[in-house]
Amino acid sequence: MMRGADDAEQGPPQQHDTPDGHGTPGAAAHAGLLEDNPEDLFENAPCGYLSTLMDGRIVKANRTLLDWLGRSHDDVVGNMRFVDLLTVGGKIYHETHFAPLVHLQHEVSGVTLELRTADGSRLPVLVTSVVKTDSSGQPQLIRTTVNDARDRRAYESELLRSREKAELERERSQRLVSTLQQTLVPPALASPPGMDVTAHYHVASPDEVSGDFYDLFPLTKDTWGLFLGDVCGKGAPAAVLTSLARYTLRAAAVYNPDPVAVLKNLNTVLNTADFEHDPRFCTVLFGVLRPEDDGFGVTLASGGHPNALLLRRCGRAEYLPTPGGQLIGVLATPHVATTNVHLGPGDTLLLYTDGLTEAHTATESGERYGDDALLGYADVLAPSTAGEVVAAITDLLDAFGEGLVDDTAVLALGVPPES
Q1: Peptide bond before residue 383 is cis, with ω within 30 degrees of 0
Q2: I need a labelling partner for 350 at 20 to 30 A (CA). Which of 101, 111, 267, 393 fits?
Q3: Which pLDDT belongs to residue 233?
């Protein structure tokens, strides 16, 4: 007769002789050792087990759960309900949510609760309950598994602390970036008498310092210098290059205000600066303003920068082409393109960086906004004052939302219309 599982629990396994004469357990005996006693499995399972009547009274609980609670079998079984094991908050949740769901759905899984142990400490657990029914479908018992969640709670607490620390670091980084960005943009512009000047800097990401820059400043009693540009890259290297470009342009303009000479001076500085073998360059428009009888004359020099826009008082807009202008800082002697324009009453000149035209639209294709769309937009705006143009461009930038992937600087100079 073959030995059953119960027999394997009662006595030692049979020994079988091997060719070397030593007795070792056979395959059948190994199988017997691997079989588990159901009662022992229930009592010493790695999780807590309990069974309750439908009113919650405990009729069975395993040793694992009783050890966690620090209570005896007689204390719990037959004398307590499951809700009596819970903390105050757990009792409220059990009565208002957990118990009704068990009775309604006959199963609730993975609910977080806290048990109150005999010494008053709290034990976080994950609870799953299933209703056992008879052959007619009538509920008889509620079977519940209780899993120790202390390690999980500790992990979640550590994860929460790490997240809070990361958020604080991010806020600190954003404040640092914002402060640094503000130092790269002039707090106020010196507007020439008889001209309205408005500027705006639109930040695409609060986490990165970008390299857009602009300025307007007096050169002599009746001339003013202006520039707007965009350096390559982002972050600290871009901030260093932006600061160098701004101060070089201002210093060079004081020495020689000719726009071409100013940009070539900047080119020389960028070519000779030590950036640890990392080439640095920028696009830039530099101009000189001079008052004239009925407005201002502007001479603009371009080093590879997008063309400025002129919004005429007659109600149309046009680009001021500067063909052939090359990037500043790449070549030893770049070509610098120039153009001249007269701003009369009602005219507005708009300078901008390419974050505006390279923004992605909200269409399905997500295509870039582009020069043609911007010209059409400006054509609708014309004629407009400097403030009105910048306000409209700001609304446009806001409308791009996440499609705006690069910072954008805009500088508008307008001659007020005649009354």
Answers
A1: yes
A2: 267
A3: 77
